[in-house]
Amino acid sequence: MRGIRFDMFGEKLCPRCARRLPESAFNADRHMVSGKSSRCKECLGAINRAYYHSDVMRARRRWQAARVRRGVGHDRRVRKENTDRIKQEMLAAYGGVCACCGEWRPRFLTIEHVNKDGARHRGKSRRGGMGLYRLLKKRGWPTDGYELLCMNCNFASYRQPCPHVLEAAAAALCA
What are the extents of the domains in the chain? Predict the structure, then answer.
C-alpha cells in the first residue's frame, strides 16, 4: 500500500472503507510515497477512537483503581484535607496568632526559625513548608527555636526588626 499514488483525477482508494476519495480526505504522512496516509481521515478517526476507548481507558481505570486500593493519595481533595489538618494542629500547638502583631487568620500564619537558621535547616533536612510542619509534628511540636509569625512579620524580620517591634519601642519611649 505504500506505493499507491493518486490517480489522474486526484483520487485515492481507502483500503478500509473501499471508497475512492479526493486528496483532501487523507491526512499528510511524510513516510508514504504519495505524501498522504493510506487510510482516509474518517477511517483513521474511527480506528483511533476505538483504540482509545478500548485499551487506553480500560488501562487508566485499572491504574486509578489500583492506586485507591493501595491508599495512594491520588485525590487532590484528600491531600488538601491532610494539609489543612496538619496546619490546624500546628496553629494550635504554637498559639494560633502571630507572636509579633497578633494576626489570627490561618492563611497568613507560618513558622519562623527564631535563630534565623531556616535556610541551613532546610538545606540539611531538605524540608520546607508542609515537610517542615510534618517534621515538627513528628518531634511533638517543639517550641524552642520556632515561633508563629504572619508572613509580613516573617519577611520583615530578615533585614531589620519587624515594624511592629519598632512601633512598640517608639510608643514606649514616648510614654
Answer: 11-70, 76-174
